[in-house]
Amino acid sequence: MTRLLLRYRRTLVLPTALLLAFVLMTLQARSGSSLALLTKQILLAPISPLLRLATKSFEVSATLWNDYVDLRRVRRDNQFLKEEIRQLRIEMGELHETALEHARLSRLLQMNNQVGTKAVVAKVIGKDATNWFRTILIDRGADRGIQRHMAVVTTEGLVGRVVDVTPFTARVQLITDPESAVGVLTERGRVIGVAAGSHWDVIQIKYLPLMADVAVGDRIITSGMGGIFPKGIPVGKVVRSSRPTNGTLFQSIEAQPHADFSRLEEVMVLARPPSNTLSWAGKEPPP
Prior knowledge:
CATH class of the largest domain: Mainly Beta
CATH architecture of the largest domain: Beta Barrel
GO biological process, one term: regulation of cell shape
Strand order of the largest sheet: 1-2-5-4-3-12
CATH topology of the largest domain: Thrombin, subunit H
Number of domains: 2
Shape: elongated
Function: Involved in formation and maintenance of cell shape.
Organism: Candidatus Methylomirabilis tolerans
CATH superfamily of the largest domain: Rod shape-determining protein MreC, domain 1
Helix content: 25-40%
Order of helices and strands: HHHEEEEEEEEEEEE
Protein name: Cell shape-determining protein MreC
Pfam family, one: MreC
C-alpha cells in the first residue's frame, strides 16, 4: 500500500489539496469560527499556488479550445466562400457566352428579315479544315428545308454552299476549299470573274482580264451567275494584284475572305429567291 501511495503521490497531491480546501470552506460556512478560518488559511497557503495554476491552466485550455473551434469554423466558411465564388465565376462565364451568342443570333435574324428570301439559322457543330477539304457541319438538315447547293452566309459575308444533306444536319463547302468556285465581280469596276479556293486561307480571283481595273483593297461580291449564290453577297477583299508577263491573258489576284472561318459559330442558309438578287443587309465588311 505504501509503495502504491509513493508511486502515485504526485498524481494525488492536487486532488487531495482541492478536497481539503472544499472541506475547510464547508466547515467555515457552517461554523463561522475563527479557529476554522485560521485552520483554512494555514492549510490553503501551501496549495494556493496550485489552485491558481489549475485555474489558469483551465482558462488557457478553454481559450485554446475556443480558438480551435473558431479556426475550424473560419476554414469551413472560407471553403464554402471559395466554392461559391467558383460557381459564380462559372455562371458569369456562361452568361457572358450566352449574351455573345444572343448578339450574334440577333444580327443574323435581323439580316434574315431583310435579305428578301427565306433563310434558316444554324449552328456549326463540326469542322474539317485539312489541306484537301475545307468544310463545316451544321445542325440543320432536310427537316428544316435545307437542300444541296444552297448558299451559306454570316453577317460578314459568304461562307460557302451546302454539298451534302441528312435529315438533321448538312455539310457546307467553304469558299476556301480547293474544289470551290464562285461567280464574282469587283464591286468598283464591275469586272466578272471566278473566286476559287486554294490550300491556304485566301481565295484566287480568276479570269480577270489584264486590262481590267483591279486594285488592292477592292471588294469582291457574288455576281449572281450560276444560279447558286444570290448577287451582292460580300466575298472578300483584294490583298494582292499583279499582271504576269508570261503571256497569260488574265491577272493574278488574291483576296482575303470577309468571313472569319476560324471563328464560325452560327451561319445562315439562304433559299434562292426568284430574282436571284440578294438585298444584302449584313455588317459592312472593313474597307
